[in-house]
Amino acid sequence: MPLFHYRGVDRQGQAIEGSLQASDLDQAAYLLRERGYRLSALEALGDLGPAPPPIHLAGPVTNALLPAPTAQPSSSGPPIETKPASDKDRFFVFAQISEQVRAGISPAEACQTVARHLQHEDLRQALVEMGKGAERGRSLSDTMARYPDLFPASAVGMVRAGEVGGFLPDALLEVSDQAGRAHKFKRSFWYVWLIGINAAISIPVVLLATRAMLATWRAVDSSGGTGSYGEALRQSYLQKLIWPWGPFAVLAIGGTFYLRHLLSSRRFEATRHRLGLRWPVFGARARHESVTTFTQTLSRLSRSGLSPARSWALAADAVPNLEMREKLIETGRRMGDGSKLSDAAHQSGLFPQEYASILATGELIGDLPGALQRLADVSRGEYEAAQTYAKVRGGCWGLLGCAVTSGIILAILMYFWYHELLGAVLEGLE
Fold first, then answer.
1. Looking at the domain assignment, is residue 103 inside a domain?
2. What is the pLDDT averaged over residues 385-409?
3. What is the tally of structural domains in the chain?
4. Confidence band (pLDDT; 50, 70, 90) for 281?
5. Does residue 421 form part of some domain?
6. pLDDT at 221 over 90
7. Cβ neighbours for 309, distance < 8 A, ≥ 6 positions apart
8. 172 and 98 in one domain?
9. Which domain covers residue 9, as residue numbers?
């Protein structure tokens, strides 16, 4: 009979690892679910004889037992290209799944229930696959990793941390909250579109209109007033549309939308996050959000009996900013089984100096989860203050941008009326 190896947590949230014999993968997943296990991995080892009993790890789970997480699927298959899902979509989807799982509904059933009411076809199909995979013992995070356009790497990492650490409902809710905060923050910058419309559409249109009106006046004036004003205006607009203002307007409008599409694509995601971390005003928000997510997740993982190195790797994988995430993962790679979180926090260079001191105190008195929770609360306060500051400063820059672009339009009209058109009229009177 085939042998299957599994990892996960039991009903008490204790990390487990072991193997069992079953006729196939579905039967193995069913038997483990009957025991109340929440699986993070299940794989076939072949027919290797009698299966050893489950290993209940009372102490820390070492890196040797649990490999470091990755945003790429392990055995779920290659990534699938889909239409992107919005932050608003993820906010509603993961909030519903979290509520159902917290109420005792299995993740498989929760995913399939939520999928029935979705309008986003690709997201609906992804949830169906997540549910089917969970029924076969596959983790939700592995299936999510196959849909990078629907689920960011941080969402995959957060769900994986919840599966391994035994706080899956909280992890799903955190994914929803992150998406909701991002959606609200982006909506507060609605005026960016107004600036873009002014710059890419209004200014070229005003230039086209003033050039065409001036050419119309000169055409009618040259005919001694006998020409048709409507026909002259139509001809002038056609001429200016052909060259040069028509191509200029098309290039400006098309270039603006193409640039927005290019920069918002997954291909430039790392570049966006790198710039966002260094951007004045907004960089502080991105940094504090990442630190808050990391410390909060690390606090939850430290309560599950995982080793510091393993907890650090899982928490780093859930960080939303990709550059911060890579730096934290790189720090985690240098940690061993006996490494301390306070030393890693100091070596990373990503945290204030007092954070390492608070962690060292928590390790000394045996209250590391409490110390991490205090750091998470402090970081959340800093994040909320940075977000408020970013909205206020961003609003000031937005008003300035609207004033500048609107001023350019007004200047073009004033110059046309008082210099060009009036000059042409006076010239005709002479």
1. yes
2. 91
3. 2
4. confident
5. no
6. no
7. 62, 63, 332, 335, 336, 337, 339
8. yes
9. 3-56
Instruction: State the average pLDDT for the chain.
Output: 83
Last residue of a domain, one of 187, 202, 237: 187
- CB 171 within 8 Å of CB 161: yes
What is the Cβ-side half-sphere exposure of residue 270, based on CA atoms within 13 angstroms?
5
Instruction: Give me the residues paired with residue 17 across strands.
Output: 7, 55
The CATH number of whichever domain residue 93 belongs to comes to 1.20.81.30
pLDDT digits (tens, 9 = 90+) for 46-90: 654 444 444 444 333 333 333 333 333 344 568 899 999 999 999
* Own/partner pairs, 138-145, CB within 8 angstroms, 24+ separation: 138/39, 138/42, 138/76, 139/39, 139/40, 139/41, 139/163, 140/107, 140/111, 140/168, 141/40, 142/73, 142/74, 142/75, 142/76, 143/73, 143/76, 145/71, 145/72, 145/73, 145/76, 145/79
pLDDT of residue 64: 33
Pinpoint the alpha helices (H) of 119-243: 121-135, 140-144, 153-165, 168-187, 191-197, 203-222, 229-242
Residue 74 CA neighbour count, 13 Å, CB half: 15
Is 396 a residue whose pLDDT tops 80?
A: yes
Both tokens of residue 173? 């809710």
How buried is 201 (Cβ within 10 angstroms: 0-12 exposed, 13-18 middle, 19+ buried)?
Answer: middle
Last residue of a domain, one of 135, 155, 187: 187
Residues 6+ apart with CB under 8 A from 429: none
Length of the chain: 430
* 12 in a structural domain: yes
Q: What pLDDT is stored for residue 46 in this prediction? A: 63
The 10s digit of each residue's pLDDT in 345-380 is 998 888 988 899 999 999 999 898 899 989 999 999
Whether residue 167 is found in the same domain as residue 126: yes
Asked if 145 and 96 sit in the same domain, the reply is: yes
The answer to whether residue 146 sits within a structural domain is yes
